[in-house]
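note to self: the first set is below, dont mix up w the second
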Amino acid sequence: MPKPSNPQLRLLRFWKRQWRESPTLMEEARQRAVQGAQRTYQARNLKVREFVTQWPMTLTNTDLKTRCELKAGEMGFKPRSFKTKAVRLGLIAYDPKAKLWLNRATTSN
């Protein structure tokens, strides 16, 4: 691990001193930052959900790949991470018997 530089150490000392001298102010700032991150995360998930609900009920691998590539770029995702996010949110699932991707977004709402 590289040794921290002087500006990094100064910044670290500054924030440590801020937490020591005014913990309530720093805690309020931390809470605002957490709430802002939650709003961003939820808005991104909502955009993914809205896009996936427009898909047909079943998709082939190539169809899923083209749809992910289409939307991922404009949302700031890589195509693979867009697909992973949709799977993690439970919006799509793979059926190995049928060898198709199932769209669960329309049935979950």
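second set (the one i keep forgetting abt)
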Amino acid sequence: MASSTDSAYLADEGISLGLSLGYGQLDNPVYKKDDIPLYALPRIEVFAGDFSFANTQFAWTPVWGDNYQVSLFTQLNEDGLYFAKHSAALTAIRTTGGRPSMTPPPPGSSIETQAVIKRRGDITKISKRKLSAMSGIEAIVDWQSWRFSAYWSMELTNYHKGLQGALSAQRLFLFDQHLVLLGAEIQHLSAGLVDYYYGSAQQEIRAGFSPFLGHSSQKYNLKASYQYQFNQQWQFISDIKYQRLSSGIADSPLIDDSNLLSFYAGFAWNY
């Protein structure tokens, strides 16, 4: 979930530090896993020429212009946060994107969708899912108050050898000291990534879960952010994000909810 720090489309040279205190939660879709509470969100950003670090993302931007840029980046994978401890998840809050589904079924195919029967078990006995790191390329184009972006990434940590991509669009509104950001994005996750985090194999079956083989899937996201700038150091920030998981993830017996709502509101101090 975004911490509102990226919503002005601006980046400065040097070091930027901040801390937000408030309340929110990251909705966790995994069965018997608690939602992740959000209280204190740090912001650590370093910009040095074409290189940058923002919270958990490293980026190099060799190609850029007045209204576009192309970057190579490395960042943590979102899905691993659902299985990580809360302390690890809080340090990895970030914005994520997506990729649209491929071609729809041909007209008249009328494939019947059967109800999925999930058998639950002991979530504490499933195989361990590790937080993976992804690296890839991202392209951004700014047009008036719009920002369009696309990225494609592959895994570095060799846990699942998965791929992930995104298409997103954001619209920025500025009214004096008020800032509103609306966005939509579609993520595409490869079969390897989905199966690693949401698949149910031998150990999960022994723990009582029904079998499930993950395949390439999508996540559909809608976001809204609001900021009020009191002065150069203090601001009020708020974010809300709705995410829908496609059936390739939602049908997993490890998933308890396919509609996720995450939010945060608080006061931020910037140094």
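remember for set 2: Residues 132 and 157 are 6 Å apart (CA to CA).
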